[in-house]
Q: What sequence folds into this?
């Protein structure tokens, strides 16, 4: 718990400095006060755990977003072509995608990635699968989501 | 050496003047850099605006709620991100770029959450999606239908 409190304090201090850009003593003291108050409130609410301070995985998450950006670009082109063509041939379909990861964090990341990719939206989540609505039927193949599921689980620090 | 001594001092002076003249006519590199950066930023922003435009057309053309969500999602992924990237290129290595970078990162987290919330609410409320192949009506079909309605 002290470990996550420390990580949260460092992350908040860095965030404060990056956002304000001022190094005057009075503003620094105000920053310290707000960091301490936030920490105290988090400790009081007993939420000082990995979910509150997931900042150790930020580099992994950023590298995952680079891969995801490529996927988003490809999907965007497909959706633009479908929408802008005069005939607009689309084939909306639903598919259930199994969740590979175990914890809530990786499931959230996976569902968010599916929604972030244009043409697929996660509609409903239960214990072990995600209901996905796809704009084109060729996007609604459950096997195509396996790589995304593995990578998103890895990006939030899940080791399989 | 003999050849060099043949060259008169006047000729050397003239040559030097020519060299300095060309070097003052040299390309203004900082200016070229600024133009290049402005062009990159502008093309990135225009690309973003294209995707926002395509998303708007999609929202207008697509048949039902669930398919329209896809077009709206396109607006806030590539559309907003490309505009932000263009602004980052324009502002260079400054604090503004850092803020824009964080903004684009948070946008990647919040926009799918909002999209999922809307779609999940529709699903829970019992809105049934239209499934199966769909094709937009051509103008001829619409005209024929209107003519039939007018005749009857």
A:
């Amino acid at each position: 718990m002290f470990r996550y409190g420390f990580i949260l304090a460092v992350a908040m201090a860095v965030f404060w400095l990056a956002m304000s850009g001022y190094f005057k003593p009075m503003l620094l003291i105000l920053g310290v006060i707000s960091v301490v108050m936030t920490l105290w409130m988090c400790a009081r609410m007993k939420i000082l755990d990995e979910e509150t301070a997931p900042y150790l995985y930020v580099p992994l998450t950023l590298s995952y977003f680079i891969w995801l950006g490529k996927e988003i670009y490809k999907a965007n082109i497909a959706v633009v072509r479908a929408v802008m063509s005069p005939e607009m041939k689309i084939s909306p379909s639903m598919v259930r995608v199994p969740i590979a990861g175990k914890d809530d964090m990786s499931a959230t990341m996976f569902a968010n990635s599916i929604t972030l990719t244009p043409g697929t939206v996660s509609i409903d989540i239960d214990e072990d699968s995600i209901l996905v609505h796809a704009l084109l039927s060729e996007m609604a193949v459950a096997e195509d989501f396996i790589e995304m599921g593995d990578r998103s689980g890895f990006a939030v620090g899940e080791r399989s | 050496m003999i050849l060099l001594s043949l060259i008169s001092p006047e000729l050397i002076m003239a040559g030097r003047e020519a060299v300095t003249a060309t070097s003052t006519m040299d390309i203004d590199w900082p200016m070229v850099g600024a133009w290049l950066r402005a062009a990159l930023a502008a093309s990135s922003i225009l690309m973003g605006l294209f995707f926002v435009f395509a998303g708007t057309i999609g929202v207008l053309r697509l048949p039902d709620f669930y398919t329209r969500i896809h077009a709206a999602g396109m607006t806030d992924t590539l559309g907003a991100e490309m505009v932000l990237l263009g602004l980052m290129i324009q502002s260079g290595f400054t604090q503004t770029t850092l803020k824009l970078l964080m903004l684009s990162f948070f946008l990647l987290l919040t926009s799918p959450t909002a999209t999922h919330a809307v779609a999940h609410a529709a699903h829970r409320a019992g809105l049934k999606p239209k499934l199966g192949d769909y094709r937009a009506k051509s103008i001829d079909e619409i005209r024929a239908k209107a003519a039939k309605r007018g005749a009857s």
About this structure: Residues 29-125 of chain B form one domain. The interface with chain A takes residues 51, 54, 57-58, 61-62, 64, 66-67, 69-71, 73-74, 77-78, 81, 95, 98-99, 102, 105, 108-109, 111-113, 115-116, 119-120, 123-124, 129-136, 138 of chain B (CB under 8 Å). Helices of chain B lie at 2-6, 9-24, 29-61, 65-91, 95-124, 139-151. The CA atoms of residues 141 and 147 of chain B lie 10 Å apart.
